[in-house]
Amino acid sequence: MTEQQRVHPVRGDFAANAWADKETYQSMYQQSVDDPETFWGEQAKRLEWTKTPTKIKHTVFDTHNVDIRWFEDGELNACANCLDRHLDKRGDQPAIIWEGDDPDQSKTLTYRQLHEQTCQLANTFKALGVGKGDVVTLYMPMIPEAAMAMLACARIGAIHSVVFGGFSPDALAQRIVDAESKLVITADESVRGGKQVPLKDNVDAALTRKGTDVVANVLVVKRTGGEIEWHDGRDLWYHEQVDQQSADCPAEPMNAEDPLFILYTSGSTGAPKGLKHTTGGYLLHAAMTHQYVFDYQDGEVYWCSADVGWVTGHSYIVYGPLANGATTLMFEGVPSYPSHGRLGEIIDKHNVAILYTSPTAIRALMAHGDDVMDSSRRDSLRVLGSVGEPINPEAWEWFYRVIGNSTCPIVDTWWQTETGGIMITPLPGATDLKPGSATLPFFGVQPALVSNEGKILEGATDGNLVILDSWPGQARSIWKNHERFVQTYFSAYPGMYFTGDGCRRDEDGYYWITGRVDDVINVSGHRMGTAEIESSLVAHEAVAEAAVVGYPHDVKGQGIYIYVTLKDDYEPSEELRKELVQWVRKDIGPIASPDVIQWSPSLPKTRSGKIMRRILRKIAANETEGLGDTSTLADPSVVDDLIENRANR
Ligand code: PRX
Q: Which residue ranges does the record assign to the Acetyl-coenzyme A synthetase N-terminal domain (predicted)?
């Protein structure tokens, strides 16, 4: 039996106690697509509305008029839904369990404490002149203050824009300028794997860049007490400000379609896009998926190991779990510190029932052998989840057998920053699992596969993954650029949302995501535009031209492979190679660190000057047979040189 045919059927005892078994999934799914108005109108009741919506769905995927509205006459507040409404029943229940980078540091915040501190922070924002519709940028470590800052924005109707703490000052500045953010929240330093990252220094550097004078204040959490510079009048200590404020801050009633946050993500071209997510539909999608996909049961400790800087952290550390009154674990560090047993030790220490992590983290542990998990028992685990990139069947089986002690279903969840929440996924009590497949669509999600010409393909086939109709968590637009939104997602296949992913559907209707079909690469689950890395490289004085492609990497899923053509006055050298690696790290951030640089005197181009990436991808993958038709190249001999000098063999 090949790996792909191996099936793990739903366990009967699991199905009996789960939120959804096979029949429930099927009947709910059917209703969700046959009668979305009734289905989502009913589901909306899981949130607390200050004005109940009567208009449920108004969505148009027409290329000339993409218009997406859910619950458009309803009013609610996302923060009140995540905190206030739980106070009566769960005021003393842990809302956030924080585990520090240092295993001796952890703390718990109850719903009451989180509510109180979030209200104080919301009042701080108001005192600083931040109100409804203003954008607040977060550049934070993985500490509870990050969640509080998101919730405090939501409470007063401000819009948060979280920038991952691993991005460079330039990348941060770019996002601050695009969002016209008045306030930045950061910490003196973050700590990961025993090392300090100078967040405040990075903010200082970012704020010297053009256009950042929109920022009036920087609020600084004292995380390490490390040395930082101080700009009087602009910089404020978080604790000093918050301590002065009352914990009474009424939640602002928001229209369901008011923006909750923007989150930047990379596309195949141009600068990162600020995806706009709104309040009602997003929160409903995050909450509902969190309950059904992880089969969350009252009182359980749930751990999503993502960073709040990514959409996974937004939906599945903060909004989904808190909207459900769950206990969410937030981990500051990395799974390899102080030892490779850390992940399991955290699970035992906090009695974690549900672990949601990435294929990269699993493969990195797997590389150390089964005994990396010997320091823990992990018998509190009930459900495992995977996200961010395709999980290979070997890593799936290892996750199942070694981390999950062969007792926990694995939910391989496919979704995107644009989708707001999980889209294609097993439900642990309802779906027979096939390692490597994200399986079946969640409620309300209508996937389809189309040919390059846009024809909908039926049955078992490969194709481009599209979604035929809207779902509540869908991003509504790109910040200040609706035209780009329409162009990026709705122009390739008119009338459909194009995901950018390739996919296979098998004879059981299961979906197998095969990876991006555009110029986006996915390195350790971090999504990057090859064009962004290329434009960074050509800004270096030695570089005439650069082409970036992904190539298969054992741990990271994809690695970054760069072809560089130097200017005439420059010679390839080890020193220059290192310099270019540092250049990109500094320009974009360590996540964009090049793995391989191949010096290439010229690049394969068509006669019209277009680089043929298909060929570069194959050479980078060491697949030099069957390069396809190279006759359209201006100079086919370029390819021979690239093959001969390829760096990955
Ligand atoms: O290519 C798909 C991959 O990650 C992309 C979305 O990246 P991002 O917006 O950063 O969001 C990541 C977390 C939701 C997708 O277009 N991807 C995500 N999940 C999976 C996946 N590929 C395969 N299997 C998955 N489960």
A: 25-82
Distance 555 CA to ligand 1 centre (A): 16
Which tokens is 444 given? 């309300």
Q: Cα dist. 510→293, 412, 418, 432, 592 in Å?
A: 16, 12, 22, 10, 33
Instruction: Tell me if 529 sits within 8 A of 535, measured CB to CB.
Output: no
Measured on CA atoms in the order 374, 378, 379, 384, is the torsion positive or negative? Answer: negative
Cβ atoms 252, 170 nearer than 8 A: no
Residues with CB under 6 A from ligand 1: 265, 311-312, 387-390, 412-417, 438, 499-501, 513, 515-516, 522, 527
pLDDT grade, residue 3 (50/70/90)? very low
What is the helix (H) or strand (E) element at residue 262, kind and residue range?
strand 259-265
Ligand 1, from 410, 434, 522: best to mutate by most atoms within 8 Å of Cβ? Answer: 522
Surface-to-core class of residue 222, CB atoms within 10 Å of its CB (0-12 exposed, 13-18 middle, 19+ buried): middle
**Structural tokens at position 391:** 């999980």
Indicate if the pLDDT at residue 1 is higher than 60. Answer: no
* CA angle 594–595–598, rounded 5-degree value: 90
> Token pair for residue 162?
């979280």
Q: Residue range 426-450: average pLDDT?
A: 98
pLDDT digits (tens, 9 = 90+) for 105-122: 999 999 999 999 999 999
Q: How far is the CA of 486 from the centre of ligand 1 (A)?
A: 20
What are the chain's domains?
Answer: 77-277 (3.40.50.12780), 524-645 (3.30.300.30)
pLDDT at residue 636, rounded to an integer: 84
Residue 248 has pLDDT above 90, yes or no: yes
In the reported structure, the alpha carbon of residue 413 is separated from the centroid of ligand 1 by a whole-number distance in angstroms of 8
pLDDT exceeds cutoff 90 at 308: yes
**What average pLDDT does range 214-221 have in this prediction?**
98
| Beta-strand relationship, 195-197 and 190-192 | antiparallel
Q: How many helices (H) and strands (E) does the chain have?
A: 21, 32
pLDDT value at position 5?
65
> What residue ranges in 400-451 does DSSP mark as E strands?
410-413, 447-450
Q: What spacing in Å lies between the alpha carbon of 186 and ligand 1's midpoint?
A: 27
Q: What is the pLDDT of residue 610?
A: 87
Q: Report d(CA 408, CA 622) in Å as an integer.
A: 37
Which two structure tokens, joined as six digits, stand for 403?
A: 């981390």
Q: Which residues are annotated as part of the binding site?
A: 192-195, 312, 388-390, 412-417, 501, 516, 524, 527, 538, 540, 543, 585
* CA separation for the pair 556, 522 (Å, rounded): 8
Give the distance (Å) from ligand 1 centre to CA of residue 640.
34
What whole-number distance in Å separates Cα of residue 39 and Cα of residue 446?
Answer: 14
**Ligand 1 atom at shortest distance from the alpha carbon of 513:** 23
Q: How many CA atoms lie within 13 A of 444 on its CB side?
A: 24
- Pick from 412, 416, 514 the residue to mutate for probing ligand 1's pocket: most ligand atoms within 8 Å of its CB: 416
C-alpha span between 398 and 227 (Å, rounded): 43
Q: What is the DSSP track for 235-251? A: EEEHHHHHHTS-S--PP
Query: Residues comprising the binding site for CoA?
Result: 192-195, 312, 524, 585
